[in-house]
Amino acid sequence: MNSKDLILDKTLKLILNKGTIDISIREIRDATGLTTGGIYYYFSDKSEMFEAILQKYMVDYIKIDFDEILLEGSSRDKIHDTLFYILHQYINGVEIESIDEKINYGDVILLLTATGYAHDEVNRIISQTGNDIRIFLTGLVEDGKMQNEIRQDLSTENIVESLHSMYMGIQGLWLISANDDDVIFEKNFEITWQAIECQ
What we know:
The protein has helices at about 5-20, 25-30, 35-40, 45-60, 75-90, 105-115, 120-145, 155-175, 180-195, and strands at about 95, 100-105. By secondary structure, the protein is mainly α. The mean pLDDT is about 85.
């Protein structure tokens, strides 16, 4: 691992352990084993370092690679597996190589946004990701309608909004409670699916 990534990883760990972004260069130096000059070689100040942490652990992490989602089976299976995959991407944690552990993503996003380091790029990516999810779900719902697996009398837009709202509610619950109980997802998905499936 290069020194720049080491600084970012160890600083994030310090921020999460202390519950604040008020971390001194001395603490970062002690955690990384680098000199003060070695730290300032990569970052002109702590603000630049925190921006880099945001980029690595929020902006880059929020993006979804829809090509990674395995889509097999019925429309129900495809929609279920898509939402399940996306939820678990956010909840399963951020792998930090230098400390050989996963950190709960909910802790990262809540702490970094609460401390004033949520910037326009993060908000833009979150908004774009929501739109990307809706677009992806729209394709699945349209396909389900063509296969006569999803009701024709409900608009695709309303179905997608229902699915997205269910997803956002569960994501919020999981992030706040740090409880990724899959039963919550399964129950809510089943209720939503029963409302939209062809009988």
